[in-house]
Amino acid sequence: MHDSSASGSILLTIEQRRVDREQQRRLAAASTAAPVYCPLKELRAVDPGDAGLRAIRDADVIVITSGFALNIYLAHPEWREDGTGEDAPSPTLIVLSERMAATARAAGTVTGTKAAILTPPEENQRGVAALLKRMRYRHAVHLCGSLSVAHNALPDDVERVRIYENHWDDECESRACEAIDAAIAPDPNRTEDAAGLNTENAQQPPTANRRINRILVTSPSAYRRLRSIMQRIPQCFAADLAYYTLGPSTTAAVEADGGTAVSPGLRDNVLQTAIERLLVN
After folding, report:
1. Contacts 24+ apart (CB under 8 A), 135-138
2. Beta strands in 130-258 (DSSP E)
3. Angstrom distance (rounded) from CA 184 to CA 227
4. Which 8-state DSSP code applies to residue 234?
5. In the beta sheet, which residues pair with residue 143?
6. Cα–Cα distance between 160 and 36 in angstroms, integer?
7. Cystine design at 142: which of 60, 63, 77, 173 (Cβ 3.0–4.6 Å)?
8. pLDDT tens for residues 113-125?
9. Confidence (pLDDT) at 86
10. Residue 39, Cα to own-chain centre: how many angstroms?
């Protein structure tokens, strides 16, 4: 394991706002260069279409496993009407975490009605499947994105309705490469970095102690995109990398590639737990 006090920098494939301020402070203290927050995704809402809208309105259970999908759902009160302008019966919402549940409650999920909001025993699809197994439902719908995990754990009778796409192209990858490269570039204000810089050759590869050696990777798709980035800017990454994940699907992706990944090991607060493991291991 890596000592959090050892030299090297940290990359997190999430938005900085998702990390609480105390953990941001500790990450900064544990990273030689400023921690790089680089979400390897560009999410875009899409129209579910007539069939998808009918499924959403008909469902008595709606599964939402993405914070982005939850925000889309909350922004569309018309999805909770029966097509005649009247409110449809409130579905039971299953969201992945207590944080998402709090967001739904704060938004008044279904105005004027009392919608049940449930969270699974684990913050992953296996936890949702376990919760569904104990429930009786007529029609369950999963509001999902364009990508799915390799080992979908939800029951076969849960209908998938796509409401967003996880976009990524060469331009997105190039922007990510530039952001990572710039973030850990030699710092002219540091004596040891400035020694290797001059006006004629300002672009130097990062010194060994500034290269990324610890990575929090949040999904299998983020890991695949990260591997492509690493091939383009190998000078930004240490040879010995430690990966930290949020769940079993991403851990499996890293291990299938011959890497070693540390999972949270707990059923809830997985993001905070994963960051803690990165900080102390």
Report:
1. 135/61, 135/92, 137/60, 137/61, 137/92, 138/60
2. 140-144, 158-162, 164-167, 212-217, 237-245
3. 18
4. G
5. 64, 161
6. 34
7. 63
8. 457 999 998 888 8
9. 57
10. 8
Residue 244 pairs in a beta bridge with 216, 262
Spatial separation of the C-alpha atoms in residues 211 and 39, rounded to whole Å:
18
User: Three-class SS string for 195-217?
Assistant: CCCECCECCCCCCHHHCEEEEEE
For 162-183, what is each residue's pLDDT tens digit? 999 989 999 999 999 999 999 9
Q: Residue 194 phi/psi, 5° resolution?
A: -65, -25
Angstrom distance (rounded) from CA 184 to CA 147: 30
Per the structure block, which two tokens stand in for 157?
């009778």
**Structure-token pair, residue 260:** 């070693």
| Cα 5 versus chain centre, distance | 26
pLDDT tens column, 46-76: 999 999 999 999 999 999 999 999 999 999 9
How far, in Å, CA of 189 to CA of 209, rounded? 15
Greater model confidence, 107 or 29: 29
- pTM, two decimals, is 0.74
The count of other CB atoms within 10 Å of the CB of residue 1 is: 9
Instruction: State the pLDDT at residue 113.
Output: 46
**62: nearest Cα among 16, 96, 33:** 96
Length of the chain: 281
Angle at 178 between CA 45 and CA 27, to 5 degrees: 85
pLDDT over 90 (residue 12): yes
The answer to whether the beta carbons of residues 244 and 226 sit under 8 Å apart is no
Residue whose C-alpha is closest to residue 66's, from 36, 28, 39, 84: 39
CA distance 217 to 40: 9
Scan for tokens 């809208």, then name that residue: 53
Average pLDDT over residues 201-224: 84
